[in-house]
Specification:
The protein is of the alpha+beta class. It is built from 3 helices and 5 strands; from the N terminus they run ββββαααβ. 38% of the residues lie in helices and 14% in strands. The longest helix has 21 residues. The mean pLDDT is 87.
Length: 108
């Protein structure tokens, strides 16, 4: 994954403090992973969406073997925010696997 980091900031409607932009090391594109049954037929179900910052947190910590502190600095967020992103992404992936639901990765 080459190129400069991409700035992404989730949209949050309503009042409150605006969210800080997160630096993503890739350009997110929408991708869908569909579970198949034993005959190869796609299984239907409500898709689970994984945001680009959640995917980047997973990539930094589990694929690139960075510590949470290093990954947080790379994404320009606090370590606590990175931990919450990891927790959310792991929960979504496990839920999709257990409930046999599609996973949609990309900008929300």
């Amino acid at each position: 994954m080459q190129g400069p980091p991409w700035r992404w900031c989730p949209r949050r409607p309503g009042p409150g403090r605006p969210l800080k932009p997160r630096f993503i090391g890739f350009t997110p594109q929408t991708v869908t992973f569909m579970p198949l049954d034993s005959s190869g037929t796609p299984l239907d179900g409500e898709p689970i969406s994984i945001a680009p910052d959640e995917l980047e947190a997973l990539r930094n910590v589990y694929l690139e073997n960075l510590t949470q502190e290093e990954a947080a600095k790379r994404m320009n967020v606090s370590r606590g925010t990175l931990w919450r992103l990891l927790e959310s992404a792991r929960r979504k992936v496990v839920q999709a696997l257990v409930e046999r639901r599609p996973i949609v990765i990309g900008p929300l």
